[in-house]
């Protein structure tokens, strides 16, 4: 299988450079719990969750469906307050939605009546403090958006509407939109889950390349163990609900990575270990069901 190495042109790279090389924001979850609904009888989604992410670190979370992976993203972004414990980002306790975050999901959710470039620019138009200076910096913002689109292989597609793009193209545009405001924290909730295997693997390389430019802190939720190993500095496994971290492993494969690396001993062993942890969780769930 051939490796994916996104081509970088000097013109495309220049506008993407940040003011410093450590753009990421440290993240810390201490004893975090979240219960949906009634405070006593509601569903306990996560409990006793401990997670620390260093500034600029890329962490992937895997685990069984419904274990609270996406819930952690809501807690970290401030979209949902924790029932217990504390969440901090960049040294500040999270009590409301934070502005230094970029997000991308399995469904790109592009506005169908707007051109691709307008969808990419959307965070700069609606989120403070960028909204106040959008018109003043319009040319700079347009140049950055065009540069991002070029980097992900969408040069010449900025005037197209979402319905004119393939699924892979939409997800590339979604990544551009998540990065347009140079977030210090990037939250990715199964961004490639709906794509075919070839497109998904190609986008692994694209995402790694974009991340290496400025090194924002990244939290990736995925069900694809190879994807987790390819992209992350660390992979953590969450237990079944109520979710908490039960396994944390560093990935020592040098960067930039290639698809061929996934056939190396370290990657194969790590994928095997992760699969074993998750299969054990499924067996535990089945045993509990038989006992009830």
Describe this structure as you would to a colleague.
Residues 1-22 have low confidence and may be disordered. The protein is an alpha/beta fold and 292 residues long. Helices cover 37% and strands 21% of the residues. It is globular and about 55 Å long. The strands form 2 sheets. It has a 6-stranded mixed sheet with strand order 6-7-8-3-9-10, sandwiched between helices. Strands 2-1-4-5 form a 4-stranded antiparallel sheet, with helices on one face. It has helices at residues 10-13, 69-77, 116-126, 130-133, 138-151, 167-179, 197-214, 225-231, 265-291; strands at 27-36, 43-53, 58-62, 84-89, 92-93, 101-105, 185-189, 217-221, 234-238, 245-250. The longest helix has 27 residues, at 265-291.
Briefly, what is this?
This protein is of the alpha/beta class. Helix content is 37%, strand content 21%.
Name some characteristics of this structure.
292 residues; Rossmann fold; disordered N terminus; 37% helix; alpha/beta
Tally of strands: 10
CATH topology of the domain at 21-100 and 185-194 and 217-292: Rossmann fold
Q: What value does the average pLDDT take?
A: 88
CATH architecture of the domain at 21-100 and 185-194 and 217-292: 3-Layer(aba) Sandwich
CATH superfamily of the domain at 21-100 and 185-194 and 217-292: P-loop containing nucleotide triphosphate hydrolases
* Number of alpha- plus pi-helical segments: 9
Shape: globular
Helix content: 25-40%
- Poorly predicted regions are 1-22
CATH class of the domain at 21-100 and 185-194 and 217-292: Alpha Beta
The computed structural class is alpha/beta
Strand fraction equals 15-25%
Cα-to-Cα separation, first versus last residue: 47 Å
Radius of gyration: 19 Å
What is the string of helix and strand elements? HEEEHEEEHHHHEHEHEEH
How are the strands ordered across the major sheet? 6-7-8-3-9-10
Biggest sheet statistics: 6 strands, mixed
């Amino acid at each position: 299988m051939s490796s994916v190495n996104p081509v970088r042109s000097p013109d495309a790279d220049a506008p993407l450079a940040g003011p410093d090389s450590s753009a990421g924001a440290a993240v810390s979850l201490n004893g975090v719990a979240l219960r949906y609904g009634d405070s006593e009888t509601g569903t306990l989604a996560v409990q006793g969750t401990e997670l620390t992410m260093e500034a600029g670190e890329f962490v992937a979370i895997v685990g069984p469906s419904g274990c609270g992976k996406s819930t952690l993203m809501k807690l970290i972004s401030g979209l949902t307050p924790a029932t217990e414990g504390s969440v901090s980002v960049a040294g500040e306790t999270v009590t409301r939605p934070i502005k230094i975050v970029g997000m991308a999901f399995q469904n790109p959710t592009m506005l169908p009546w707007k051109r691709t470039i307008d969808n990419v620019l959307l965070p700069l138009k609606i989120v403070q403090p960028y909204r106040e200076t959008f018109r003043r910096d319009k040319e700079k913002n347009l140049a950055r958006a065009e540069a991002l689109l070029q980097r992900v292989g969408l040069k010449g597609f900025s005037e197209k509407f979402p319905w004119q793009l393939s699924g892979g193209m939409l997800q590339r545009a979604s990544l551009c939109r998540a990065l347009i405001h140079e977030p210090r924290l990037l939250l990715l909730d199964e961004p490639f889950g709906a794509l075919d295997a070839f497109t998904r693997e190609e986008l692994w390389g694209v995402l790694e390349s974009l991340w290496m430019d400025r090194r924002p802190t990244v939290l990736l939720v995925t069900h694809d163990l190879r994807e987790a190993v390819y992209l992350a500095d660390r992979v953590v496994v969450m237990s079944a609900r109520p979710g908490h971290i039960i396994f944390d492993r560093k990935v020592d494969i040098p960067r930039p990575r290639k698809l061929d690396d996934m056939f190396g001993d370290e990657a194969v062993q790590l994928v095997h270990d992760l699969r074993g942890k998750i299969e054990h969780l499924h067996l535990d769930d089945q045993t509990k069901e038989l006992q009830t």
